[in-house]
Amino acid sequence: MNFIQQNIDPKQFQIWFRPIKPVSLIEATLTLAVPSEFFREYIEDAYLDILKASLKKELGVGAKLVYVVEPVQKQSPMVYPAAHGNAPVNKPISVDTTIKPTNPGAFVFPGIQRVQVNPQLNPVYCFENLIVGECNKMGFTAGESISAAPGKTAFNPLFLFGGPGLGKTHLAQAIGIAIKKKYPELVVLYVPANRFKTQFMDAVAVKNKLTDFLAFYQKMDVLIMDDIQDLMGPSTQNAFFNIFNHLHQSGKQLIFTSDRAPADLENFEVRLLSRLKWGLSVELQKPDYQTRLSMLKARAFREGVKLSDNVLEFLATRITSNFRELEGALISLIANATLAHKEVTVELAESITEHIVGEDQNDVTIDGVQKVVCDYFNISRDELLSKTRKRNIVQARQIAMYMSRNLISNCSLSTIGAEIGGKDHATVLHACTTVSDLMSTDKTFKQYVNDIEKLLVPVRR
């Protein structure tokens, strides 16, 4: 360990080598216990050369390294590398108090007031902890551009919208955290629309406080407002309209999240709606299978537990609606296994998800997917299941496999392949990867997939 400690960054040593425990040394074979399979894969990928050099130095040329993964119930919580930093802190700001009290005291002077601003940013919601897929790639790319040059891109304001649990708050806060990291001197504030509304009403109720309220918000360099659909009331919207104008004209960055598109916001002033549409609007969509699986692996690693691929694949297949439900199912599964000292199995995962996922998610069938795909591309079922290599038939077959994997619970790759032309699981996996790749490069193909999913969604409800 001393050799490794002397040759890598101290922080990386604490994260990746301190949790490792020696198990045994038999002749030239060293056995080490690691917290998870993901952990083992990472250190072998990132530190393979230094591991080889260390073994050779200590045990000789013929040294061997063997890993064992600790059972879930024996593992202690592990610090996730991207979540151990301190919460971002803003510098104090100066707010001008221009209105004098009616009867000022001898030592009360209007003028400058120093205000400490808590940015309200959760360090866990950083880019490093964000799983990027087709569902959020555009928002992630825009966020990276904004964090590099806040207020200076065409993405001002940035409007993120989509259903619950799709990662809008995470992405919005990640941008704020990245800005604070690159530009510590900037004042960043995250505020839910309901809290803004409450603050405004309190300011109106206290004499002379409305001026201070407006002055405070006009000092922000980056304003992130969550759930802006809750910004109800003409007086609240009027105050926010003035803040918006001041910040935008001053080159400050504005970021908003909502559960609906700007055009679908109700009871909003027309002039405010038009400003919300000025920059870039990005819809966050439901995560596909691969993104769901990646999120589960990352969160399991963050919790310091080892879960089998079968369990993770079951959860990724079973829960398709959003990240929040998926994460909740994983945490429930880990808690049940840890507290009851049970092994994490697919059977346990199935019993846990029964309380989370409704029966309506089981309505899609492979036959149903085939019918929708055939109708959409105007081909017969026989053509879809045939061995023809015609490009249009092959793509339709691949989309049917992709949809079956993403939308059908408790359905293995082998089952999908058997039902769609008698293919093996490797062919189905290749088809799913091909569809994901084509969706990122071919807009027309992506539209095909989105159209078919929309046709299948009502069936699931």
Report on this model:
The protein is α/β, with parallel strands linked by helices and 461 residues long. Helices cover 51% and strands 11% of the residues. It is built from 19 helices and ten strands. The chain has helices at residues 2-7, 10-16, 37-59, 137-148, 168-182, 193-205, 209-217, 234-249, 270-276, 289-303, 309-318, 323-340, 346-353, 366-377, 381-385, 391-407, 413-419, 425-441, 443-460; strands at residues 21-26, 29-34, 64-69, 93-97, 111-115, 158-161, 188-192, 222-226, 253-258, 280-283. The strands form three sheets. It has a five-stranded parallel β-sheet with strand order 7-8-9-6-10, with helices on both faces. Strand 8, helix 8 and strand 9 (253-258) form a beta-alpha-beta unit. Helix 6 runs antiparallel to helix 7 (209-217) and helix 17 packs across helix 18. The radius of gyration is 27 Å and the shape is globular. The protein starts with a helix and ends with a helix. Mean pLDDT is 83; it is low at 72-84 and 99-110.
